[in-house]
Amino acid sequence: MDDHYTENTKTFVPLENNPQIMTALSHHLGLSPALSFTDVYSLTDPSLLSLLPRPCFALLFIAPETPSLIALRDAEDAQLPTYAGSSAAEPILWYRQTIRHACGLIGLLHCITNDPAAGLIMPDSALAKLREEVLGLEPTARAQYLYDSEMLEAAHAQFAAQGDTVAPDALTYDDGHAFIAYVKGSDGHLYELEGRRKGPLDRGGLAEDEDVLSEAALRKGPLRYVEAAEKAGGEGKNGQFSCIALGITPEAD
């Protein structure tokens, strides 16, 4: 899925979808310590879902780029116009990805610079400055802003080196996974945000009391990919799907 990159494209060492790493990077950039990421161990088991902090501000979901996922995505993108939104009045903030292996960073930004998490960005932080400066940019200019950001590049490098596994070679690594963020837009709709799509995907309305971990949101969002993999004969088994949730930081015991 990296056909649009060239050998001269800026390339990052991939981030792990690890709640500790993503939380630490978020706080480093300027998200309030009041929010943190937590592992989601099941998208269907009510008892496990009930253990997660609510309301849930955002989900960061990893899906393997299997034939079924790619076919689902390509069929959908073929029907969509290229997104050109650039106003603060837009229900969400979306970033096009132009940096190779920055899927995790783009997914993280989708989670922490959209509402409701955006309301808990620390004033005068690097993240507050970034959000203010990109909000009115059209998607190409917004992507270039991220591409040129030395602050983001340095922060990404610092935290990519802190994962549980040895950091892979940035130029030869082929991850084969998509980082997909889910947020509830200002219009009350569930949005699927991935920087390599044509734009944000409106997955439909949610009730006022439904967050992105609600049964309706999970059905409209990540479970679409899990079910497509199951119908295709079990693609994506063996833990290839994973998810972390952004919510209120639990109080220490």
Automatic annotation (TrEMBL):
* Class of this enzyme: hydrolase
Domain of life of the source: Eukaryota
* Residues forming coiled coils: none
Keywords, A to Z? Hydrolase, Protease, Thiol protease, Ubl conjugation pathway
Instruction: Drop me one GO molecular function for this one.
Output: cysteine-type deubiquitinase activity
**Enzyme Commission number:** 3.4.19.12
Q: Using the record's annotation, list all stretches that form the UCH catalytic domain.
A: 11-248
Q: Name one GO cellular component term.
A: cytoplasm
What PROSITE patterns does UniProt report for this protein, alphabetically?
UCH_DOMAIN
- What reaction is this protein's catalytic activity? Thiol-dependent hydrolysis of ester, thioester, amide, peptide and isopeptide bonds formed by the C-terminal Gly of ubiquitin (a 76-residue protein attached to proteins as an intracellular targeting signal)
Q: Name one GO biological process term.
A: protein deubiquitination
Among the Pfam families in the record, one is Peptidase_C12
List the Gene3D superfamilies: Peptidase C12, ubiquitin carboxyl-terminal hydrolase
The family line of this record is: Belongs to the peptidase C12 family.
Q: What is this protein called?
A: Ubiquitin carboxyl-terminal hydrolase
